[in-house]
Amino acid sequence: MRIYIKIWIFEEPKHQLSPGGKRKYPTEEERDRKRQARLASDFGKLYEDSSSSDVTVLAGGEVFKAHKAVLIARSSVFAAMFSTDMLEKQKNTLEIQDFEAEIVKGMLEHVYKGKTEVVAERAPELLQVAEKYDLAGLKEDAEFAAADELNLENAAELLVLADIHNAAYLKSRASDFINT
Q1: Cα distance between residue 113 and residue 45, in whole Å
Q2: For residues 167 and 102, what is the distance between their CA atoms, to the nearest angstrom?
Q3: Residue ranges of domains in the chain
Q4: Which one of 20, 24, 82, 139 is at 20 to 30 Å from 179 when CA atoms are compared?
Q5: 147-178 pLDDT per residue, tens
Q6: CATH number for region 36-179
Q7: Nearest to residue 72, comparing CAs of 82, 63, 64, 61?
Q8: d(C-alpha 104, C-alpha 83), whole Å
Q9: Is residue 54 packed enough to be buried (19+ CB in 10 Å), middle (13-18) or exposed (0-12)?
Q10: Is 169 exposed, middle or buried (CB count within 10 Å of its CB: 0-12, 13-18, 19+)?
Q11: How far apart are the first and last CA of the chain?
Q12: Backbone angles phi, psi at 109, to 5 degrees
C-alpha cells in the first residue's frame, strides 16, 4: 500500500533544509543580531508610547517624554543629573537650550532605538550632543556619517569639530582627506 500526500506551504519555513536533508540552524551571530533588533524594537515602542514616561525633555519649544531609567542606563551625564540632588531630578524636567528640537529628538531616538534617521544630514550637531551627554554609540554613528560626507567645502570644519569633540575616527579621515 502506498500513500501519496501533497503539502502546500503558504509561509516561509522557520528552518531551512540544506542539501542532504539536514536543518540549517542560525549561527550565534545571527541570533545575536535578531536579539539586538528585538531589543531595539521594544525600546522603540517604549519611546513612541510615552504613557509610562517619568521625565520631560524640553528643547526648541518642543516637549519630549522619556524615562529616567533609560537615560541613566545610556549616559553617565544623565545618570549624574538624575542621581544627585540637581534641579533635573527635583522637577523631572530636562531643559536643553543649546540644541534644536530636531537634534534632541534624534538623540532620544538613538538612546532608545540605537539609531536615528537624521544622522546623515545632522551628523555634526549629533556629534556635539553625543559628546556633551556621553553617548558613545551616537557619537560613533555621527562620526561615521560625517566622514562619509567629507568634501572640499567641509573638510577643515569637520577636522576642527573632530578635534574639539575628541572624535578620533573623523579626525583621522578628515586629516587624510585634506592631506590627499
Answers
A1: 9
A2: 22
A3: 36-179
A4: 139
A5: 999 999 999 999 999 999 999 999 999 999 99
A6: 3.30.710.10
A7: 82
A8: 21
A9: middle
A10: middle
A11: 78
A12: -60, -45
- The residue type found at 73 is A
- Find the angle CA(76)-CA(47)-CA(33) to the nearest 5 degrees: 80
Cα–Cα distance, 161 to 145 (Å, whole number): 13
The amino acid sitting at 7 is: I
Q: What is the mean pLDDT of residues 7-23?
A: 64
Mean pLDDT confidence for 65-94: 88
Cα 18 → chain centroid: 36
Pull the grid cell for residue 140.
560613533
Q: Which amino acid is at 154?
A: N
> Residue 23 pairs with which residues in a beta bridge?
17
Placement of cell 538612546 in the chain? 111
Cell of 80: 549624574
